[in-house]
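Check these lines:
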Amino acid sequence: MTDHLSTHLRPDYPFEEGLVLPIDKPLGWTSTDVVRKVRTLMRRLGHRKIKVGHAGTLDPLATGVLLICVGRATKQVDTLQAEEKEYLAEIELGATTPSYDLEHPVDTRYPWAHITRAEVERILSGFIGEQEQEPPVYSAKKLEGRRAYEYAREGEEVNMRRAVINIYSTRLETCELPTSPRLTVRILCSKGTYIRAFARDLGRKLSSGAHLTGLRRTRSGGFQVEHCLSLETLQAKLSPPAPTVETNPV
């Protein structure tokens, strides 16, 4: 896919016929921000009514694989979104935040000196399989027609409905215990899995607290992050060539 894009992606590409653009979403951007950016690029190329959508939301504080569907490829959104995802999660033990990530400051601290690498690996293995997960209150889940985060920001109590997810594998990539409470975990999971909630549950199972300090989606279905396009590269490929200035021979 990437070789195809590198070779054939250009301003005169037949986008209406359909194209899946694997984008490496930058930090701080919402998934909708990326869709708007691609839609703007399409309009500059004259595709004013072309459809653009994404297959699988990434939080603003997450980076990595975001599949942008253009033209007829928007019909593939549900299929692409249903495929398994792989994440690299940076987690700090011993502290929680209301959003389970760095969107909010730490609200509670917990002991973590009792936690060992062996215990972390044992608990991680227990996450594998089908299970029910409670989504974060600060999420885009809809409750009675409103987003859950709207209730949370207004200070209202919210009862989140548990969702069935599947975690296929977990692997402890780095562990700074016992000198530091920081971990990096690779997680392969199903659609609908909240890695922020995974971090929350990991902390609880370790008789402590935990929150995400970084998150990168490294794969979505068959699309890997090392084969994704940056927005800068995409814009460069879709920029019309500068007009040639003819000069009169002397």
Notes: The mean pLDDT is 91.
